[in-house]
Amino acid sequence: MNPSVAANETGLLWERYKNHNDISAREQLILYYVGLVKYVAGRMAISLPPSVQQDDLISYGIFGLIDAIEKFEPERNIKFETYAIARIRGSVWDGLRSMDWVPYSIRQKAKELEYAYSRLEGKLGRAATDEEICDTLSINKQQFVQLLMETSFTSFLSLDEIWKFDRDGGNSVRVIETIEDENAVDPVSMVMFEERKLALTDAINKLPEREKLVIALYYYEGLTLKEIGKVLGVTESRISQLHTKAVLRLRGRLSRVKKKIFD
Predict the structure, then answer these.
(1) Is the pTM higher than 0.70?
(2) Could you tell me which residue, 219 or 187, shows the higher pLDDT?
(3) What's the domain count of the chain?
(4) Among the three residues 76, 99, 122, which one is the final residue of a domain in this structure?
(5) What pLDDT shows up at residue 104?
(6) In this structure, are residues 98 and 111 in contact, taking their beta carbons and an 8 Å threshold?
(7) Is residue 2 assigned to a domain?
(8) Quick count: other Cβ atoms within 10 Å of Cβ 135?
(9) 140 and 82 fall within a common domain
(10) Do 157 and 30 share a structural domain?
(11) What are the residues whose beta carbons fall under 8 Å from the beta carbon of 218, sequence distance 6 or more?
């Protein structure tokens, strides 16, 4: 947070901006919360290739921060930091997608690996082992590890996926941006939200224990891959492999859920 603005002054700034459209207050809020952008960019940069500059991530994130400040409703009693981080992260991913920073060949490999997990685990009814995936893809263990390394940069997009509820994509929502409105509950939206949450929870619970732990530590505890490696006593690259496998399994299982809905 920007130290030039005292924490106890933010309430007044919100009041000036939201109730009186004070542009000066809006600018001060941006300056105060810009540290959130740097925090998100720093965490995401760790998981991206060196060719992606952190300054670019910050630039994309600023748009998300501004959007969050403009749309935030203080009267809902939701913590702004939580709301803003989701917006900032989504804005950064949108920027990265526009750059198309992951080569097409790598995206294809990721889709093939995701399909292998989905097809094999759907058949087995349990988590597939590395050896079973290798047999399915007709590759050896060394090639499998290399494949995980190559596709690891694509896996960090998954929890910001846009859920589409019709075939043409006209009705969609970013799951991470779904926030319950306690003052105006839409029963249909709540049912859809609960279905998505249950599907994701069920998919996570079916992960192998170490992959489940990596997901929990990364997405819920906010640890970096390096920090998770220290906790589990393995290398950062090993954690990256576990994370990639977990996300691919989740994608495969959730795609089967969506297919059932559509069919």
Answers:
(1) no
(2) 219
(3) 2
(4) 99
(5) 72
(6) no
(7) no
(8) 12
(9) no
(10) no
(11) 224, 225, 228, 243
